[in-house]
Each structure stands twice: as C-alpha cells, then as structure tokens.
Amino acid sequence: MSTLSTLLALLDSRSFASLWYWLVFAGLWSLVSRNVLGIPSEVVLRARRDETAQAVLLQWLALVLPHWRIGPGMAAALTGLACFLAVVLAVLGFAHDMEAAQALFLLLAPLMAVMALRVRLANGLARLLATQPPPEAARIAARRLVRHGWLAYGVALAAILATSFAAAAWIARHPFGI
Known about the structure:
Helix content: over 70%
Oligomer: single chain
Structural class: mainly alpha
Order of helices and strands: HHHHHHH
C-alpha cells in the first residue's frame, strides 16, 4: 500500500506541490535560455572573435530570421491573444485564488515576454542585415544576440524567483492543498 500512495503522491495534480510542474518549469527555461533565435551560442561567441565565424553567423541568420517574420496583422492578433490569456490567468489565479491559474500565469507570462523580445530582435536583425555590409552586420548581430541572451537569463532568473516565492506563499497558506 505504501508503494501505491507514493506513486499517487508523485502524480499529485496540485501545481506548486507537484514534481511535474517544477520539471516542466525547469525544462522550459533551460530550453529558452539555451540559444537565441535558434542559433547555437557557440556560433555567436565565435563570431565575436573570428572573421570566418562571422560568415557562419550570417548563414545562420539567413536561415533562421524568416521563421521569426510576423506580419503586422498577425502581430496584432497574437498580441491581443497573449494579453487576453495573461489577463484571464492573472485574474483567475490571483483575484480568485486558483492555484493552477497562478502556476500557468507564472510559467507563461515571462515566456511571452521573452518571445516578444525575440520577435523584436529578429525584426531588428533583418533590418540590420539589409542596411549594413556583411562584416559589420555580423559584428553588430553577434553583440545584439549576446545582449539578448543575457536579457533572457535575467527574465528566467526573475521568473524562477517570482514563481518560487509565489509557490512558497501558496503552500504556506494552503498546507494541505485546500
């Protein structure tokens, strides 16, 4: 019987007390902070030092940037949908004290911010590649990609801290999940 209760405790559906929530949370932020726009960090770091690696970075940018292109109409629709989802989760989670909505908000809101910053970065890099000569564009692009990587790390750290504090507060107020 203890094995069954241990298995049921592992599969607990409560968000903040669930091992699965924290595994998804850690895995998601690990994937988000691993690379910027799908370009490996090794390529970006080498491009800051080596001229031949700058050509490789430009090839990566030529492959990756079209996937981040969003038209103005689609951008407005995605922004509206993301804001609606964030507001619904925030109201349900914090005003109506629903644990799952709080957990989803704390998981998705910072992720939405990082994705918006990545779309903005991709648009800026596309303009940069269209206006600057290749060696200069590669140097500037590498610098912007590194800066964005550090910004994503900062958002990830803030998300981890905010979620940890919110989870601790939730568990302190609801020690038995009620």
